Structures are given as structure tokens and as C-alpha cells.
Amino acid sequence: MAVRETDHSGNRISGEETRTARRRAVGAGSPLGLRANRIEAECRAKGLRLTGQRRLIAQVLSEALDHPDAFDLHRRVAMLAPHVSLATVYRTMKRFEREGIVKRLEFRGGHARYETAAKRHHDHLIDLETGQVVEFRNAEIERLQEAVARELGYRLVGHRLELYGVPVPAKERSEEDL
Ligand SMILES: [Zn+2]
Predict the structure, then answer these.
(1) Which ranges are annotated Basic and acidic residues under compositional bias (predicted)?
(2) Is 142 annotated as a binding residue?
(3) Residue at 162 is within a domain
(4) Exposure b/e, 127-137, CB count within 10 A at least 16 = b
(5) What mean pLDDT is predicted for residues 4-26?
(6) What is the per-residue pLDDT for 36?
(7) Are 140 and 167 contained in the same domain?
(8) 26, 34, 147, 158: which one has the fewest Cβ atoms less than 10 Å from its Cβ?
């Protein structure tokens, strides 16, 4: 599933930029000939040793620019190592989630999806026609949520916001611009 990454102002951030930055941040290859990846580095920092299969799953998720579910991850991992089972992918995701290394996303009517927890905070819009997940950040929404929590007597420590939408036809869009 394709994902458009956007910054505050809705400008697109190219996936290539993210990938290049990641490549720069990682070190030499592992014994399996795989590059070290962000999840692996976090595991190491937490004293978690990764087996070959888990390292491979970590690599695939680290390089994902979308929000894959377990089936997507398994399909991608199986291209590199056909013997890795779907059950191993599920178990590994559960473990990573418990360690706070990956975030589990439960969008309406779909399978659980995953993304690395270290990603910069963002919210999601789900296109109900295509299932595409669009990432966005909106400073005003962030401020409003904090204000609501404060009014209720709380200090906001986190939130999850999901928008569900269908594409506005191009014709209507241009009329709104007039
Ligand atoms: Zn996301």
C-alpha cells in the first residue's frame, strides 16, 4: 500500500530522502549480509538479541514506507527467506510491540498494521476507497487536543487520531478553489 508522507504544511517528503537518511544512519552489514537497521539498533540498545529471522523481519519493517500488516510483512520477508512463517512474523511483531519498538495501528475494518515507533509523531487519514493510508501533521489539531485535555484537568501525554475519507472528485475540488 502506498503512503504519502507529508510535513506540517502538507508538503510531500520524498521516501527517497527518508531512505537515504536511514542508510546514512546505519552501520556495516550484519553476518547475514543485511544492513543493520533502526529496529535492530534499538533492540541492541535494549539488550535484546535478534535471531536471523527476527533481524530480517526488523529490516523489512524498518525499510517499509507504508503501514504493512503481518501478511504484507510476511510476503516481503518470504522474498528474501521463504522459510520464515507467518506465525514467526506475528510473534516477532508482538515482541517488538511489547518492547515499544513498533506501533500497532488498528484502522477500522482492517488487519492490524505496523510502523516503527521511532517515527516522528503524525496522524493518519485512511482513504476508504483505496485503503491508502496518508500520514499528516497539523499544528492546530495538536494544539487543540492539548487545550481540550487541559480544560478537562489533564496534561496530554499522547493521542491517536484517525480520519476516514473518500477522495473529493477533481471537479468539485476545483470549484472549491474558486
Ligand atoms: Zn504512520
Answers:
(1) 1-20
(2) yes
(3) yes
(4) eeeeebbbbbe
(5) 42
(6) 61
(7) yes
(8) 158
Angstrom CA distances, 142 to 26, 123, 127, stand at 31, 10, 21
Same domain (yes/no): 32, 80 = yes
Q: Name the residue with higher pLDDT: 172 or 13.
A: 172
Q: What is the CATH number of the domain that holds 131?
A: 3.30.1490.190
* Range with the largest mean pLDDT of 44-53, 62-71, 147-156: 147-156
The amino acid sitting at 62 is: S
Mean pLDDT of the chain: 81
Cα(124) to centroid(ligand 1), Å: 6
Q: Which domain holds residue 146?
A: 123-176
Query: How close is the Cα of 144 to the center of ligand 1, in Å?
Result: 20
pLDDT, mean of residues 82-89 = 96
Residues paired with residue 15 on neighbouring β-strands, in sequence order: none
Query: How far apart are the CA of 2 and the centre of ligand 1, in A?
Result: 11
